[in-house]
Amino acid sequence: MYYQKLSIPVDQHYVDVLYYKAKSANRPIIFEMHGGGFMFGSATSDAIMCHRLRNELDVNVASIEYTLTTKAPYPTQLNEVYETMLHFYQHADEYQINPDKMITLGHSAGANLATTVCMKANETQAFKVCLQVMDYPYLDLVSDSYEKEQLSGSIGPKFMEMFKERYAGDQDPSSPFISPIKASDEQLQQLPPAVIVLAEYDGLKHEGLAYANQLIKNCVETHVKTVKKAPHAFMEKYFSASRVVRTKYKEEQAFVWIKGHLQYYMNREF
Which of 38, 92, 153, 196 has the most crowded Cβ, counting Cβ within 10 A? Predict the structure, then answer.
C-alpha cells in the first residue's frame, strides 16, 4: 500500500485523504486534487503519481477525496479542500510537515480547486500557499461549452455543459471561486507562483493560457508548458496503468518539468 487513509473532519462530516508521508520530518506538503469534471474520478487513480512525488522529492502528499457533484454541488468541494488544508496546517507538528511550504496540485477540475483554494486562503488569511500547480486546468464555467474549440483530445461539449451545471448548481458561475478566469486583478495579485501544463489537443488550453497571461500581467511568477500532441488528461492516463511505461517520452518529460519546479519552490526561501 502506497498510502495511509485518513479521515479529516470537515464541518459535519469527514473527508478521506490518501496520505503519502515523506521519508524525512518537517518536509513540505502537496495537496493533490484529481480531475473528472467535479463529477467523476477518485484520489486512488492518482496513486502512482503521488507515490512517485513522495519518493523522488521526499515530500508529503495529501490526495483529497473531495465530494463529487453527484452528491453535492459547489461550494462543498472547495470548502472540503480548504478545511483539509487548514487541518494539516493547524496540526503541522502532529503530521511533521512544514506549514510554510504548502503546495496545491490539481488536474482539470482539480486544477480549478488548486487555484480557488489559494484565493480562499488569501481571503481568510488562515494559511499561505507557496506554489500552485495546474494540469490542463478547467477555469471557465461561464462560456458556452459548444463554442469552445473542439480538438481531437478535448472533452465533448455535452459533458462539459453537464459538469458546469452540476458544479455551479444555483450559484453564479461567473464567481471567481467557480470560474477563476473571472478573478479580479486584486485577487490574482495575491496568488502564489503558478506552474501550468497545457495539452496541445485540448480545447481547455485556451482558458489555461488566458489565465496564465492574467497572472503574468499581475506580476505572479508563472511557468507554462504546452505538451505537443497531448490530449486532455494525458498525465492521469500516463500514471493510471499498473506500471508506468517509460517510453512515453512527452508524458514523462512533462512530469519531470513539474517536478523540477516543485523542487525549486520547495527549497526556495520566501
Answer: 38
